[in-house]
Every structure is written in C-alpha cells, then in structure tokens.
Write a structure and sequence with these properties.
The chain has about 200 residues and is of the alpha+beta class. It has three helices and ten strands; from the N terminus they run E-H-H-E-E-E-E-E-E-E-E-E-H. The strands form three sheets. The protein has a five-stranded mixed β-sheet with strand order 3-4-8-7-6, with no helix packed on it. A three-stranded antiparallel β-sheet has the order 2-9-5, with helices on one face. It has a two-stranded antiparallel sheet with strand order 1-10.
Length: about 200
Amino acid sequence: MKYHQEDMMRDVRVELGYNPDNMALIEADDIETLRLDEMIRRQVIPSACQVLCTAPVERIDTCRPLRGTLAWAEQEGTGMAFMVLPDDFLRLISISMTNWRRPAKIIAESDPLYPLQSSPFPGVRGNPDRPVAAIVRYPAALVVELYAATGGVEAKLQRALYVAAPRFNSEGYIDLPAPLYHDIIRQIAETVRTVV
C-alpha cells in the first residue's frame, strides 16, 4: 500500500506524543518541531528496512517476483546456478527450481552451511530434496547462488519472490506492506526517541 511521507511523519509524531499536525506552536519558527521532522524523515527508510528484514513472511504483502538470467558454474561433483540480484533487493523470501522437490533453504555467506556447499560429498551439500540458496556479495553485485542445480533445459527458475528496499517516489509516496505499517511507525518512533 502506498503511504505519503507527510502522513507517516504525522503518525510518528502521534506515536511520540507530539503535535500531530505540526502546526506552529508559537509565531516564530518552531525549531524543535523542525528538528523532530528532520529526524523522523531520516529514519523512515532505515526503520522500514529493519522491520521488513525481520518480519514474518506472511505479513509482507509487497513481495515482487525475482526475474533474471541464470548462469551455471560447474563445480567438482555438483552444479551451481547463480543470478545477479536487482539493485533494490532487500530480502529473499522464497526460491525454487523446476528440478527441486521443495523451495531452498536461504542462507547468507556467513552461515556455517555455506562452505559445505562446495563439498564433494553429495549428502553434505544441497540436493534436490534439500536445496540451498546462498546470498553472496560478489565484487560487482549481490548474487544468489543456487545449490543442487544442474544446467540444462529442464532446470529453470520456477518461483522466486523477494522484498524490495522501500524508496520514496518523486511525489513523496512509499510502498509498504499494510500489515506492517504500524510496526514501521513504532520502529521509527523508537529510533527517534533514542536521539531526542
């Protein structure tokens, strides 16, 4: 759902117990209100990202389909497909390929399971029964590596969903999951409270 920046700032001020309409409290410029508005404005994106990274998947209704071209890197004893992630990538929700029996377990490069994906032993690395998708930083971009994938016409990306990092458009609107809106407002307020 799309929310306007000014409406979000009003809701954060309400959460903080401040003047919700941002009306001037005195005739001169209200320095405190201006400072508070700037702090709120700076915390919208980081707070929204923080909530989106930790929220339960079923509460995120703004997932996008992941599209791209798969490349194949054959390793000793296993196949690995990889794909460059979009610039607005924040979180991978689900990914599966046509030759997998279930969606992949999603891990980070720092996960202890990551080094095992290069193992020559089939029972240790990802396989079609328990595939693994690793989010890895390459020099040029962020990439998802898909283990238990083998190249060929029959192996394609079946389903992939990701959460995009929220951004304001030129009209001041931002697309956020409706079920998480109040959590995001509370997170912004908590962050601002620590600064005020």
